[in-house]
TrEMBL record:
Transmembrane parts of this sequence: 15-35
Keywords noted in UniProt: Membrane, Transmembrane, Transmembrane helix
PROSITE patterns: PROKAR_LIPOPROTEIN (PS51257)
InterPro entries listed in its UniProt record: DUF3221
Organism whose genome encodes this protein: Marinicrinis sediminis
Name the UniProt record assigns to this protein: DUF3221 domain-containing protein
C-alpha cells in the first residue's frame, strides 16, 4: 500500500513539473510573438504610407512640446476619428524645430490613438501642407 501512494506522488510531481514548464513556455513564446507581430505591422504601415496620396488626418498645430505636436484636426477619412485635438509624437527622424504654431500639417499614424483628452498617438509620417 505504501508503495502505491509513493508512485502516485511521483506521478503528480512529474505532471506538476510538466504543467509548470508548459505554462512558462507559453507565456514566454506568446509575449515574443506579439512583439514581432507589432514590428511587422508597423513596417507594413510605413510602406503603405509612402503609396498613399492623402494624409490620414490633417490639422493646424496649436502647441509644440518636446517631442510632440498638439494638432487641431479634421480628418480626410470618413471612417476615421471625429474632429478634435490630438497630441502626435513625432517619428524619430523628425524634430519639433521643423514646425511652428499655426502650420497646417498632414499626418499618418500607427493606427493606435489613445482615447485620452486630448487623444494621443505616434505619427509614422508628418508633412507640412501648402496654405
Amino acid at each position: 500500500m505504501i508503495g502505491i501512494h509513493k508512485d502516485k506522488r511521483q506521478t503528480f510531481k512529474k505532471a506538476g513539473g510538466f504543467i509548470l514548464f508548459l505554462l512558462v513556455y507559453l507565456i514566454l513564446t506568446g509575449c515574443g510573438m506579439g512583439n514581432e507581430e507589432n514590428h511587422v505591422n508597423k513596417k507594413v504601415s510605413v510602406e503603405a504610407v509612402d503609396h498613399k496620396e492623402e494624409p490620414e488626418m490633417t490639422g493646424y498645430i496649436v502647441a509644440i512640446d518636446h517631442d510632440r505636436l498638439l494638432i487641431e484636426t479634421g480628418t480626410n477619412d470618413s471612417s476615421s476619428l471625429e474632429e478634435g485635438d490630438v497630441w502626435i509624437f513625432l517619428p524619430e527622424d523628425m524634430s519639433v524645430k521643423e514646425f511652428q504654431k499655426g502650420d497646417e500639417v498632414g499626418f499618418w499614424t500607427t493606427g493606435q490613438l489613445e482615447t485620452s483628452d486630448p487623444m494621443s498617438g505616434k505619427a509614422i509620417k508628418i508633412i507640412k501642407l501648402d496654405s
